[in-house]
Amino acid sequence: MGIVAWIVLGFAAGMIARAIVPGRSRLGCLTTTAVGILGALIGGAIASAADVGELGTFFDLGTWALAVLGSILLLLVLQAVAGRGGGPRRR
Asked: How many domains does the chain have?
């Protein structure tokens, strides 16, 4: 896949993951794209390690599923880390 395809896949996977993961997310367009691209890489790495699949072509349903699942996982981790901020909170 080319760089433009990775960016489009990342943005779409990030948007789908943001729609699925509960809670309020204050991510901008670039951060959403970054989460989607990193999520696709994470999903592909986990699938390759478990020998259940790999990232393929842009129009492959498995590629999209891995990207979205990896993005959801990454968003959940980010929410867990962001929720553990130290110090007093202002209202």
From this structure: 1
